[in-house]
Amino acid sequence: MADLHARLEQLAADRPHDTALVLGRRDGSGRAITFARLVAGCREAADAFERAGVRRGHKAVTMTGDPYHLFTTVHGLLAVGAVPVLVDPGLPRADLRQCLDEVAPEVFVGQPLAHLGRTALGWARGHVRTAVVTGAAVPGLRRRLPVPGARRGGAPAGPPPVRDPLPPAPDDGLALIAFTSGSTGVPKGAEYHHSTLLGQAETLARLVGTDGTLLAGFLPVVLLGPVLGHTTVAPAVNHRAPARTPSARLVRPLLENRTEVVVGSPAVLGLLAEHCARRRLVLSCVDRVISFGAPLRAGLADALHAVLRPDAEVLSAYGATECLPVSAVSTTDARAPGAGTCVGRPLDGVAARILDAGPDGVGEIAVTGANVSPAYHARPEITAATKTATDRGVQHRTGDMGLIDGEGRIWFHGRRSHRVIGTDYVLTTEDVEAAADTLPGVRRTALVGVGAPGRQRAVLCVELTARGPGRGAAVAAVRELLDRRPEGRHVAAVLVHPGFPTDIRHNSKINRDRLADWATRRLRRPR
Questions:
Q1: In the predicted structure, residue 481 carries a pLDDT above the cut 90
Q2: Cβ atoms of residues 61 and 109 within 8 Å
Q3: Are 271 and 368 members of one domain?
Q4: Are the C-beta atoms of residues 432 and 413 closer than 8 Å to each other?
Q5: What tens digit of pLDDT does each residue of 90-143 get?
Q6: Is 494 within the bounds of a domain?
Q7: Most confident of 238-242, 334-338, 363-367
Q8: Is 445 a member of any domain?
Q9: Going by DSSP bridges, is the β-strand pair 393-404/387-390 parallel, antiparallel, or unpaired?
Q10: Is the distance from CB of 264 to CB of 291 less than 8 angstroms?
Q11: Is residue 179 situated within a structural domain?
Q12: What is the pLDDT of residues 159-177, one digit of tens each?
């Protein structure tokens, strides 16, 4: 694959009138943007940044939920050699402040609400010299990005203006900073070089292909979908709370655009499956569903297969902000007895190995490939602890526990930092959860440790699917399962939780620190 700039330019030349991006509205309808219009928008954004004084090497925080503005902003900044910085605005205030202070951005680009937050809460105060607003005007901010013109019905308002081609990509160096979700502490800024972005695009293409229509259930996929040649449908997902998105916002654009590939987190895919099951709707146009962001449990996989054609695939993909994607597995191949969750073989171009393995073969998963972030921004000590130069590129310690079986498949056992360490045992989260999550009446479970590591009590928190008399039977089934399994004897308590706290980005990764605090308080209550 040529560099991202050249790929975009070639698509605009070869398929100028084909739809590159469909912008979803709240009613589920959409507005089409052609490849020619999208590339022209990137060039317009680059021109606007140059006029505003944005220069090569400037770090530019980018906060917008609008897919068109996200795409043209990020690619426009890359075109002028600036460094887009992607961070979730919904992070806890102290974490967000630390992230922005570490980056010390010269530029802030965002929708009006983001600028109001910046000024009211002091985000990156003392650093930002240039502010650019996307969308409607904000008093006091005169620099605005162009908005694509459109007439009623969603068609572009006339042919796009003639523009010079996007400039060639800068020499390989720092291109973009993407912050992690913060599920294991203060988010870290993963640095991408231009070669890293290209590596991620090439690896993602092995999962989603390079043509057809793709529904992107979360924003990062929007940045690469059109570059790969897909008509990328960006539904109006509530990106601050994806699990609360009205399901019609997903289903209508999927059906109207005859979507062949669907990419989303388990929370978003669950909305899709529930909607179709209620209406007895089969998504006959869909060839492949790919889950990102958290392990895809068997119950959700079954629910998805029930609303797809018999020959359609459901894949569970594994990766992280620092190395996305790493591997994928068809849900029909992933089921096997034993601990852990199968996440498949590494994709072509990606290598995985297990470091510091114990007698059972479980250790820390390490990944090497062109899609691996080479460093963390302004975190030299964490970079030194997790990154190692090899003759195949940078090796990244993921912080995930797992093993690689005799067939080369990776088995995920949970985060290293989420292990429960008692006086005479160590449990990884998947030792228990992968089996408990399959029980009737159980939506999901989470193993947490109460107390100091080395003296922790193992507590299994359980989220049930429904209220009523069946709850007792579901909890009894969990206890029976624990009694049958060797690791189950270490679980000191089973607690029913009304609804697990999760990450902002996917609504799928469980916030185990908060859950452990809750379990601690519950266990202290008098019975």
A1: yes
A2: yes
A3: yes
A4: no
A5: 889 999 999 999 999 999 999 998 998 898 998 998 999 999 998 755 555 556
A6: yes
A7: 363-367
A8: yes
A9: antiparallel
A10: yes
A11: no
A12: 454 456 666 555 679 999 9
DSSP characters for 36-65?
Answer: HHHHHHHHHHHHHHHHHT--TT-EEEEE--
- Expressed as residue numbers, the domain containing 81 is 35-170
For the domain that residue 496 is a member of, what is the CATH number? 3.30.300.30
Place of tokens 């043509």: 211
Cis peptide before 325 (omega within 30 of 0): yes
Which amino acid, one-letter code, is at 399?
G
- The confidence band for 470, taking pLDDT boundaries of 50, 70 and 90, is confident
Q: What is the DSSP letter of 283?
A: B
Judged by DSSP in three states, 332 sits in coil
**Cβ–Cβ < 8 Å for 135, 147:** yes
CATH number for position 208: 3.40.50.12780
What six digits make up the tokens of 479? 């206890």
pLDDT of the residue at 405: 94
- Residue 234 pLDDT level (bands cut at 50, 70, 90): very high
State the angle between helix axes of 194-208 and 4-14 in degrees (0 to 180), rounded to the nearest 10: 50
Question: Looking at residue 465, what DSSP letter applies?
Answer: S
Per-residue pLDDT at 56: 95
Instruction: Give the pair of three-digit tokens for residue 498.
Output: 């009304």
Domains contained in the chain, number: 3
- DSSP for 158-212, please give it: SSPPP-PPPPPPPSSSEEEEEE---TTSS--EEEEEHHHHHHHHHHHHHHH-SSS
**What tokens does 288 get?**
């492949």
Q: Rounded distance, CA 271 to CA 276, Å? A: 9
CA 460 to chain centre: 26
Tokens for 188, please give them. 């870290």
Are 47 and 133 within one domain? yes
Give every CB contact of residue 308 below 8 A, 6+ residues apart in sequence: 282, 283, 286, 289, 314
Q: Whole-prediction pTM value?
A: 0.92
Is residue 400 located within the same domain as residue 442?
A: no
CATH (domain of 55): 3.40.50.980
User: Do 164 and 92 share a structural domain?
Assistant: yes
Q: Which residue has the tokens 């209620």?
A: 278
For residue 306, pLDDT over 60 is answered with: yes
What is the spatial distance between Cα 232 and Cα 251, in angstroms, rounded to a whole number? 15
Q: Which of 276, 217, 209 is nearest to 243 (CA)?
A: 217
Boundary of a domain, candidates 383, 415, 447 = 415
Residue length of the chain: 527
Question: How many other C-beta atoms can be found within 10 angstroms of the C-beta atom of residue 451?
Answer: 16
